[in-house]
Hints:
Helices cover 27% and strands 26% of the residues. It is of the alpha/beta class.
Amino acid sequence: MRVVVVGNGMAGSRFVTELTDRTKDFRVTVMGEEAWQPYNRVLLSNVLAGGYGPDQVRLLDPSWYGEHGVQALLGTQVHHIDRETRAVIAASGERVPYDILVLATGSEAIVPPIPGVERAISFRTLDDCQRILARADGASRAVVVGGGLLGIEAARGLAGRGLPVTLLHLAGHLMERQLDAEAGLVLGETLAALGVEVRTGVNVAEVLDDGVRLADGEFVPGDLAVLACGVRPLTRLAQDAGLEVRRGVVVDDEMRTDDPSIFAIGECAEHEGTVYGLVAPAWEQAEVAATVIAGGKALYRGSRLVTRLKARSVELAAMGETHLTEEHAEVVRFSHRAKGTYRKLVIKEGRLVGAIVLGESDAVGTLTHLFDRGGPLPGDRAGLLFPGLSGAAAADSPVRMPDSAKVCQCNNVTKGQIRACWEAGARDVAGVAAATRATTGCGSCKSAVEGIVGWLCEQEGVSA
């Protein structure tokens, strides 16, 4: 059977590895528009900051495809899907036949229709990073347009190179989809300490060679302009092929489209009215699709989203219904702006339905576990915000963390799986990552994995 995958990003490459792990009976071809080997988009801000090179964010070695019998057509743009003959037609005219087709086309950067926007560079791909870095070398100041997760990543990456940055955002506070106003304010103050000037409630009207002009006429200087104005699913191929498309390519619980021989996963897919823009749901969907195509049974039931941002002096986790107020839920919060700390719990019917943790904290593991599992909360709410304050168990503490606690949100890896991996011989983070993929997503769980591995080695008297 011939399986063709269109898209070789984080969803497409994960699907291919999941499928080849399950069966060797298929002839697999993956077509990627980018010439790069698949890479971790989550770590691109580290490339901007100079901490990583392109090879250090790569998800697969170049030799992997040949070793696993996968044909990789990189730098190949797909022009059309011929559903009648079951073939994918590349822009070059090459026809690639399929029995099963998996669409993992991802998203594209939104470019606002304003004068001079061609002078700016979108922040989305590794090629974008290289263009930004080429301009940054001779720049004196950068302007980043967009204060969502991508914009903050771009701003802190450029500031990490010592470049003064102004971050402009249309909404009243940063990351307004995930954070409430106070958390957005604290985050902005944290970024200011890193060299990022944050301006919210402003609208960019024009991009100039030496800066941008706002709608009220104010000029904001910057000889490097970076756009991070959001993304939209890439659905043209599916739409032109006559598949059902709303905001994304509509799929069922098996990740099938309305054509049973075509699946869609990742940022281009819409399941139960939702398009997910984070890596963990994309990888969950890839696993479901691979299992189904390999002949097994699996269903995707949606994802409980946890947004993570972990960088130098910036640690953030946001999950669930963070915007509910005391009128609709029990809300517990603590704020210490001078220390860049903000913590908030949103509780309904004794269950955690939302949380924000900004600033270094050992509470994230516990809260993520409670949010993901939907279990009942202890009566001591302060103990959830400050583990150890009154004897509350901290899920980030290896001693007290239950084996069911999810350590790696991106890859759904629990403490029990890490323990089993350690007992099978993995004595360091690299060994655990190779066996479970923990730490290979956003990377924010690395310290927790290190702590568990170190604790296990210490308990058993084994050298790490």
